Amino acid sequence: MGKLFAVLLTIITIVSATIFIRHTWWMPPDISMHGVRIDHQMAETMTASGILFVLAQLVLAGFVWQYGDRKDAPAVKRFPGGATPMVVFASILVGVEILTLTLVGSKVWAGIYQSPPDSGSLHIDVQAEQFAFYFRYAGVDGAFGGTHPEMIDDANGNFFGLDPANDTTARDDIVSGSLVIPVNQPILLSMHAKDVGHAFYVPELRIQQDFVPGLVIPLHFTATHTGKYELVCTQLCGLGHYNMKAYVEVMTPDQFAQWLKDQAAQQ
Amino acid sequence: MPESPHRPATYARETAEKITEIKHLPPQGFWRKYVFSLDHKVIGKQYLGLALVAVCTGMFLSWLMRLHLANPDLAIPGLGKLWPNGAPGGVMTPEFYLSLMTMHGTIMVFFVLTTAPFAGFGNFALPIQIGAEDMAFPRFNMMSFWVTFLAFLVLVAAFFVPAGPPISGWTAYAPLSAVGKDAGPGQGTGQLLWAISIAIFCVGQLLGALNFIATTLDLRTKGMTLARMPYSTWAWFITAVIGLVAFSVLLPACILLILDHVAGTSFFIPAGLVISDTLQPHTGGSPLLWQHLFWFFGHPEVYIAILPGFGIVSQILPAFARKPLLGPRVMIGCMIAIGFLSYMVWGHHMFLSGMNPFSATLFSVPTLIITIPATIITLLWIGTLYGGKLRFTTSMLFCIGFVSVFVSGGISGFFLAQPSIDVYLHGTYFVVGHFHFVMGVAAMFGIFAGTYYWFPKMFGRMMNETLGKWHFALTFIGVYCIFMPMHYLGLHGDVRRYSAFTDEYMKGDMPLHRFITIAALFTGAVQLLFLYNLVRSRFRGAPASENPWQATTLEWTTSSPPPFDNFGGHHPVVTHGPNEYGEQGPDGSDHIMQTAPAGR
To answer: Is the pLDDT of residue A10 over 90?
Structure first.
């Protein structure tokens, strides 16, 4: 009985770990400037916790194998040294590991979320709503028009509640359903929600951030590879949540300039 | 004060005597005996019964969810008749999926993982384990169950209102949960019923927590010092303290949510929201306020679900390893440390919520520090097995299984505790796999271990061990097949709470989703073995002796089931700790009962 259980536990451990080690399911290739540090942190954590996982499960299985079903055995044995080695092992080894991970990890986190955006960033205003994302570019004047919730009218395409009749800065604002950005240029998003909470998640960009109604949240990153990627919502926002998405198109600077010109002409 | 016929001979303390003198008499008649009973044993069984109904409901909902995820166009015969709006023609709508998910989470977290391990087993076993004849406040105790039952009815009522149950998840994030029906189907009456239900539930749990604390502190029998208290009692006591603080915060949060619904207040709703083309008449509220209040409760809630499991495993492992628990004082210290730290980490649910990013680092550190006591506890369990004479009863198997799944789920917490990795994994299936292992499956294994262990004491009959072992083996394989793959899905960026996968990169993972669905259906079906065993053993099980497991604690010194006043008119006198296994007992056995003659 005990031996069977030990074998089962060992098989489960080896199969689970192998799938992780072989990267059968893994993160898609990174396309961001900061992502390499996240991937590194992930790899370090995976190695450290993978070793702990396999060790703990196999020792558990080993004890179950070794000490099961032995009614006739002599007296039970105490663990050598009692609880002290456990406390020391956990505090020092896990403690050191934690300290290292936290220190390195908080640097990575600070690099993304606590560092100021590059002064040359392309500023894009993002609005999330049930169940779409809209992106607004400032246009030639470089200024965004003010938004007025009471003027929002999705049926007429006024997703942001702009007032071009009275607000000159709003007249050249470009609104798009896709996030189109130039490669290798720092991007600064100003994120706000029209109705309920949403989130911005592009796995390839290694970035995720909630939209919180009532707040304007800045988020900055730089994409390093051109291509078309999926942006999905990861904050439960209602019945269409599963279908709330947009595309992120990373273009060369020339393509981007052309795209911006085309959009301006259309709007 | 009239003298009770069951007035015990000795008391640990004067305060205990005062309370016990006004204790209730043996119940007369059906209603007072089985329904509105003041007896902690009956109330414990009532809580477990409620949890059983709730867990069957919650599991049925998860089956529907998994079926829908495997094939969103699947028509399930009969479902259309049950829910004409949610599943027209038997095909579930996306919003119906979300309401299943919301109800699954709410039912499982509140009405299963909180009621069974804490209120269920705790009520049944805690007073006996400390040598008391009942809880400190039997009427509050009865009230706590019936209030909880009422909360369950109110929640289930949401299934029967026209727009259906809420769709905002068990976390009910505002403003989705606060603005009413404009936010989507079920967000009107359904969401309001949810908030009322949880508020009522909080009242029940507060009554229960107060009772547990008072009982443990005041009603211990002579010789039952804190150091001699069984580890399960310690765990219930610590859980009660955590619950007292946590539910005291969730209760007002729910009241504020109810006010946002019915009184036009704006606690959680900021100005300028346009929902369903309507400018909402609210101003000045904060969605983050809800998140802070909810998670200030929500994270400790994880420990409310799992700490009783820690206690149950720490109590049962030595009994079946036939040797003392390794480092009992360290174990208790670690449980207290975890309880304390559980209040400093709620922000790790909110790394990406838009709160100041600096606070993410602050919340990340205590979260990772919790790993130290958790690791020590795990090592103590594993070290307890070393050199033992393991008896693989079903209860023992579930305890060892508990250690295994707790390790698996605990280690994935390493990833999520770091904001820099949470940036990628937050909101994905990795989180779902993580918390199901560490708080769902581990706590369930604790419940199963407790059931197989205390069933003989509860009903005077043994459960069938052969069926029990099959139940364990198939469940153990099943849960790994369900929840380990969810970690893989999360690593690949698959988003949770989606009713269907329409994105290109997620579509490719459908085979893995179908595998999980098959595993979930299989594992759910295996639980029928348990149900059958439960019912059959209740009526046909072999009669149980006073102490079938040769365990040391007080509940095994009285008859199975125990008499109304637990010890038949006297109170036991405790002379030993709960941990004396592998020692030569007075009768030549390999353990010493807590009540064995002193001086040994």
So the answer is: yes
